[in-house]
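Internal ticket - ligand job 387, pyridoxal-5'-phosphate:
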Amino acid sequence: MSPNEPTPIPILDLKSQYASIREEIHAALDHVLESQHFILGPEVSALEEEIAAYSQCQYSIGVSSGTDALLVALMALGVKPGDEVITSSYSFFATAGAVARLGARPVFVDIDPGTLNLRPEAIEPLINARTRAIIPVHFCGQVADMDPILEISDRFNMPVIEDAAQAIGAEYKGKRAGSFGDLACLSFFPSKNLGGYGDSGMVLTNNPELAERVALLRTHGARPKYHHKLVGGNFRMDAIQAAVLRVKFKYLDLWTAARQRNAGNYRRLFVEHCLAAPGSEVGDYPVQLPAETGWGRHIYHLFQIRVTRRDELQAYLLSQHIGSEVYYPVPLHLQECFSSLGYFPGSLPASERAALETLAIPIYPELTVADQSRVVEAIASFFNGAS
Ligand SMILES: *Cc1c(COP(=O)(O)O)cnc(C)c1O
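stdout (structure tokens):
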């Protein structure tokens, strides 16, 4: 970097977060190393209790990743080849990949263009005799519209698995993400709001039988050891991840508050720079801000703006040393591996448009308001022709 280039603003700054908790992390890691207990054990159990209480759930099972949380949740429901599972077409691949890995068919629902969450009214027409579950995704840190989803779930006796990988601590009408479904899945991938130093995840539930099945499946269905009741897998969580996550968990609400403050700053700055409409006003502005439903706590895992010249803007921001990311460039129904499912361009237009227009800009807790001004000013100069 030449001396007169500005300091880069990354999409996420885990190094500065680490610097703020370094001593505590080292002590926690030392503790695990001294114990030489690396898989499950007391650290994992303690984390399970803390996250269950935080998420208003009775049971929680620490697993190897968010992807495996989804897989094991579907296995616990007995999802098998020929079954169908309804989910959002705009999510991380794992949501649908877990379904397909069990030989079942993901059936995709289009999204609301404002929240990027699935449209509940599109679910019911897709339910048939083969449907085994619904997976709403709480995208970007905002809970999907659960009331109509739970109403459908009740009426059809259809289990719900919440994909809460991006939504730990988010709330909908006073209740926490993870507490609505028959099962819910969290991810502790390093970039998530609560991220470990490697892969891990968690399954949450209020159903004791499902909790028992997930716990069994986590260790090859064995109970006691070497006596296998079910065909499960190795879906265990590492003690080192749990120890790191327990340190970081103490700061989660502070970090969430900082993300929410940053979201508020962006909303103000985009309006001040005449880039986005104030409040609920509509008009001819180059940037569309992410919708906040007002029915609960948005934890701002991502702050996704929408623009029509998205790829050009991303390249321009990069030239200004500002990180951004596209979550996600291809909707799930158009992924190559799902080509046999019979979807085509135009099948789910809101997801397809989102894939072309969304851009996540930095929202991490350590971001300063000066950084945010720089991001918004760079976007302003892009749209005002400075590019
Ligand atoms: C991160 C994520 C996952 C998968 O979690 P991993 O821990 O990376 O396996 C699943 N669904 C969504 C929506 C995610 O964002």
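Auto-summary: DSSP finds eleven helices and eleven strands in the chain. Residues 271 and 278 are 6 Å apart (CA to CA).
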